[in-house]
Amino acid sequence: MSSSVEAITVLSSDGDEFKITVSAAKLSKPLNWMLEDVCFSDDCDEVPTIEVNSKTLVKVIEYCEKHAPRANSGASDSDAEELKKWDIEFMKMDVKDILFHILMAANYLHMEGLYDLACQTAADLMKGMTVSQIRKIFHIKNDFSSEEQEQLRRQHPGCSFD
Amino acid sequence: MTTTPYSSPPWEVLLLVAHHLDAKTLAIASCVSKLWSISMSSDHLWKPIFTSHFPSLSTLQHAHSSISFHRLFAIGLTASKRRRQNPAKPKLSLNDLVFVISVSTSDSLIFTLTTPCDEMVADPHSLFRFDIEISDSEWVREGLEEVKVTWNVILRGWKAVFCMMDSVGKLGFQAGSERWLSVELPTPGCCQNVVASSVVADLKLGICGGEERDGRVTVKKVSAGILNIMDWRYVSLEDGFRYLHHFLYSDS
């Protein structure tokens, strides 16, 4: 790897090209390994593919670029506060559209921070909800028969279903 | 860029998120759909939750190894709720109850009162204890006298009655004294023969009169309450209502 390279190009699973700075790519272990193994200079014709769709990859890269400076240098507490606020804003996304893709991408790319953030966001969406509210939020079809439904109610006396 | 058509979250995601859920949310999530039920019910998820919540039940799984920790947690939760059941708000209130208290000697009535609870002086600490002033009590000679004391609680509108006290005994009528009477109350609900109720109906008679009244005395004041003999405190107003509800309504 040449030290002069500041950004690398990767392909999404949809075949779109994306640029990501080297410091941001270091947030992901697999990408970091790639940086060490693959030639990323401009004259290199092999562009690595990341098995994440374009829409998701845009968000993942946005997260990496935002978090890279702090991850690489270690920042003050006020920065950490600000970054936390940014995370909350960043996670205000359509559940059905993208949250779960981000979660899987973070898992696949070994990005602990983003992974925890996405899991916690999904968990927070469920907290305090009833069964039917969760179905609504995550667009899940109730595929239990009415007998099975009755049995579930009996087995979970403390749970609110409606 | 292509957009990905949405399908419900794949099981991999559910497994990942499941680790971030608390027990209650996890239980609710396990009822969402069949896929969610499978993903959210594994022993892998529930074993640590179950053993940390109910260490005393942790040997149950050895007794029947095919039972899931998810199921064990559910029955453990139900059991613990039954133990520390928060009592429901009492259905009775002050204006539902009327006290009828009477004290008589073998040959004459000393006093009888019929007073709705909401007209009595309620305890400032919300205990089931009431003070009643008596204005029309007969005068009796100072000294030991055999009396019959009855205290009935009527459900307003004369819909039901419960006898708190019906006792005969010697009572020392002495000016400036207070006389206590107490009778054990029955256990509400089942098991009346094996479980003591540990509550008693407690009556206090305030007696005055004496020399200036030619050696005769009268009952000026009555305090009536339910006393817990485990800690010698009056039960709370709400507990008193709950107790009486058992005997004044047939549905409980």
From TrEMBL, chain A:
Residue span, SKP1 component POZ domain: 8-67
Q: What exactly does this protein do?
A: Involved in ubiquitination and subsequent proteasomal degradation of target proteins. Together with CUL1, RBX1 and a F-box protein, it forms a SCF E3 ubiquitin ligase complex. The functional specificity of this complex depends on the type of F-box protein. In the SCF complex, it serves as an adapter that links the F-box protein to CUL1.
Q: Which UniProt keywords are listed?
A: Ubl conjugation pathway
Domain of life, per UniProt, equals: Eukaryota
Query: Organism source for this protein?
Result: Acacia crassicarpa
Instruction: State the family named in the UniProt similarity comment for this chain.
Output: Belongs to the SKP1 family.
This chain's protein is named: SKP1-like protein
**Domain called SKP1 component dimerisation: residue spans:** 113-157
This protein's pathway: Protein modification; protein ubiquitination
Automatic annotation (TrEMBL), chain B:
Query: What's a Pfam family in this record?
Result: F-box-like
What domain of life does the native source organism fall in?
Answer: Eukaryota
Q: Indicate the segments forming the F-box domain, all copies.
A: 10-50
Q: Which InterPro entries match?
A: F-box-like_dom_sf (IPR036047), F-box_dom (IPR001810)
Q: In which pathway does it act?
A: Protein modification; protein ubiquitination
A biological process (GO) of this protein is: gibberellic acid mediated signaling pathway
Give the keywords, sorted: Nucleus, Ubl conjugation pathway
Gene3D superfamilies per the UniProt record, alphabetical: 1.20.1280.50
Name one cellular component (GO) term: cytoplasm
Main subcellular localisation: nucleus
Q: Which compartments is it annotated to reside in?
A: Nucleus
This molecule's function is given as: Acts as a component of a SCF E3 ubiquitin ligase complexes.
Q: How does it assemble?
A: Component of the SCF-type E3 ligase complex.
**Under which name does UniProt file this protein?**
F-box protein
Its lineage reads: Eukaryota, Viridiplantae, Streptophyta, Embryophyta, Tracheophyta
